[in-house]
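Something for you to look into today, if you have time. What I am after is a single protein written out in full by you. I want to see for myself how the chain folds. Could you add the entry underneath, on a fresh line?
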Amino acid sequence: MEQRRLVPELLDSLEATDPRAIRSRRDLRLINAFLGNERWIARQAREHSNTIRHLAELGAGEGTLTMRLHHTLPSATVTGLDLAPRPLKLPSPIEWIRGDFFKTLSATAADTCTGNLILHHFQDEDLKKLGAILARFRLLIFAEPLRTPLTLALAQLALPLASDVTKHDMPASIRAGFRPGELPHLLVLDPNLWSVEEMASRRGSIRLIAYRK
């Protein structure tokens, strides 16, 4: 398939209260449920709970995954990072840092970093910069769109039921997504320092977990 191609996603330009944004976020919740990425991330966090003391989630958005991880890791600190304000529904023990996580992530004491469908928003050179920030972490858990013709074909089957924003953003996300081997390269995860596992799900996700050696 062609190389990564990034175009602005419509949802990113809409106010949170815009009816089109509200409808699109509803679509995203359904897409997330279908992909199962949040369940997978929570499962990985649970399996490594004995080593996780502080987990940071990039692009935490509405806080759905943040809350799931808070319940999965009751003895750990969980911090959500996003440009959006803190969601009102978040339990008080959860930390929230508003701002550009390229600037705020370094200020956290987190040892684990995760994100769901967030890294594909960034150009290759930005991912390299993020990788430099992530170099001090012990564990990375990410799930992103799998960039294949089959994933695009699956998306086309769902699009007739989606909003106009999702009809634009969903294919755009896939075209900006990743194929196996690309994320470790773009994040500059040195194989001498990191053990990396990647899994491509049949539903259209590429999943990465990396451990510091």
